[in-house]
Amino acid sequence: MAASSATAPSRADPTELTRDQLLELYYWMRLTRSLEERLVNLYRQTKVVGGLFRSLGQEACAVGSAYALRREDVLSPLIRNLGSMLVKGATPLEVLRQYMAKGDSPTRGRELNIHFGDVDDRNFIGQISHLGDMVPVMAGVTLSFKLRRQPRVGLVYVGDGATSTGAFHEGINLAAVQRCPLVVVVENNRYAYSTPIGRQCAAERLADKAAGYGIPGVRADGNDVVEVYRTTKAAVDRARRGEGVSLVELMTYRRKGHAEHDNQSYVPAGELERWARENDPLDRYAAVLTGREGVPAAELAAIDARIGQEIDRATDAAEASPPPEPRDCLSGVYADPAVMPALWYREGIQSAVERHERPASWGTHDG
Amino acid sequence: MAEATYLEAIRQGLSEEMERDPDVFLMGEDIGAYGGAFKVTEGLQARFGEGRVIDTPISETGFVGAAAGAAHMGMRPVCEMQFIDFVSCAYSILTNYVATARYRAFLPCPMVVRGPSGGYVRGGPFHSQNPEAAFLHTPGLKIVYPATASDAKGLIKSAIRDDDCVLFFEHKYLYRRIKEELPGADHVVPIGKARVAREGKDLSIVTYAATVWKALEAAEQLATEDGLSVEVLDLRSLLPLDDEAIVATVKKTNRVLIVHEDTVTGGIAGEITARVNELAFEWLDAPVRRVAAHDVPLPYAPQLEDFVLPQTGDIVRAARWMARY
pTM of this prediction? Predict the structure, then answer.
């Protein structure tokens, strides 16, 4: 794995990236895509227990934006932000174990896919399926930074669909009023499940919603990883300076269905092919690196090969992982009590009957 | 020591916990300079500053969600619902996000959601609700509903110190109607423990919140007029329920009347009845019965509200029926 320092260089232009950093961006994007391709194979082998969610064509959004954060900053990813979690330190092994519902997965088999987090060290928070809810949660995470005078920033993703929710509105409005150090990234991939953007929102630009909250809203090409990084970095720096919330709309395109089962029958003919051919973020970035940046193609191929080996090793380890212990399902609902009791019929009916204190007669008893 | 009302007891509890722990802070609508719709937080912003008593926009989902985020980071937020009727606006984020955080993601979520609840105050359909049962079947939440000033103080302190989310229902009818001398800053009431409010041997009334007082009135009347010895069990905590105390009172009196102000269908009495059936069936001399609100939205006019809600006379009538059974 590449060194995962996502700290920006200390130079005049804070968004300028070194050659190593440019290659690191490539590494994370390629890792995202290759890991998802491996998951597709495992899904077809029925080794993935639930659904599979792809971020094909959106890797630049996730990677470029998360790369603008420091380790102590908190990230709140969504289902198409696998890349941002990898940048934040999630490992392919964790992701594979999670999809395969293993007992040593980050959630011990309790949650699906990339719904997991770590707030003790790497600082990303597991999402829930109710879209928009992470915005108020991240308003509170960043409110705590403000109250404690910590120089930390939060970044929360929503899709075009989630901008329609009440939670999005309440969360961003509260954060704006409180001037929380929060960046809200709206990843506009033009579809929420099967619903196209035009049926989601009558506004031309989702970035314009920012005006209603009294915060800046900017729009960037979500398939240009360096532009994503620079745009997000400016918003992150602004938040860290104590200037409050920003909204960043990243224009991209969802090239796979909502999940792997979705055949995308609702997509106009030719649209998918056009985006794959003309606007693939990895193809575009590889061309920039081998062209303007003068990186030899062999160097990129070596990164690809290294990623392949990493994923092979992680797959072997994940497949060897044990399933969860069934009774672990009863622990950790509360701090106290730490374990919920199994219901009586799971203890064996005979023992439950024996344990039941049974009087000799009915109703009022002597003594 | 001077006597304090139920409302002042809650304020004292909040204030002492804020004094004790700098991570405790309050969020809600109009709770700062104004001190809240009922003045529960009056004076707290002046004392602790705007950073610890935060006025929020009208956004229950927003600030309950924000409380969760701050709690993940180690703070201990207390959210005020201006009226508990509005907690339904935060129902999704409470049940889906907050209640599951520890289980699905190992995220600590120590926070309190509190607010004025209940009727008998001519508040109409949206300022009188008792929505506690809506949260009863949400693993991950705890629910308390004190009936006395000292329990209100002891339970708000326990709720703030608890490592999970506690819904703290406070009865607005009791806010300024009851007062007592309060114990000091080290007084806490454990969550999950009921209290015998009156000892008796012929019949048990299991109840909580404002109807504890109606049950006590009924018990007094039944003692005087019927010579009946009625035990009153004040649950104090609804999630978890104190099974031990419920079973103990069933075994003692063999007759159980459950009284609550919430509507009868789907109310907590149903759950208690099921537990009595499972745990103490053979000790019963009579069927378990309920006195609760009729299954209608709570109307405004005194004549209507009084009919819908359980009254002391209803409890007396029901208890007599049970005693004769």
Answer: 0.95
